Amino acid sequence: MTLKEKIIFEALRQFSTKGFLATSTMDIIQSTATSKGGLYNHFKNKEQLFFEVLSHARKIWRERNLNGVDKISRPLDKIRKILANYRDHYLMDSANFPGGCIFVNLTVELSDQRPQLAAAVNEGFIRFKTMLKRLLEEERRTGTLRADVDLDRVVELVFSGLLGACVMYTSDKSPQNLDRTISTLDDYLARISI
Fold it and tell me: Which fold has domain 50-191?
């Protein structure tokens, strides 16, 4: 890894566990065995580092959660694959996210303290919900989704279920509880299909 990559990786891990506000630049400098100059040579301030970390975390999210989705033709099965990936590959990624889902953690922490940063995190939530809605609309066009299904409600249920699974897994680290939550969402998706 380059020094810049080490700084982003270590900031990602510390933001995940301690949060953005409680992580000092000195914490990151010490954990990467660099100097202030080493840090500030790559990032003009902590906020710029935040955006680099957010971008890197989004890349990891896509790699973990969208893995194999492109090989699936049915849109509803794509969503089900995302749920399985979220459970099996994303939330279990303690190397990058020892404190759990960094997006949930940052949103809760920053919504009152740094709303502009929380809004940047929220953009990812909006894009994810848009993707879920698009997949459900594709499923509806194929005629394999029950006609009485409200797509917006399904999106909210799946999204809220994933957030809840994240919070509970972060608090209890129980793979059984996580599996039960994801399985419940998966069962619901199976029931709205024709």
Answer: Tetracycline Repressor; domain 2 (1.10.357)
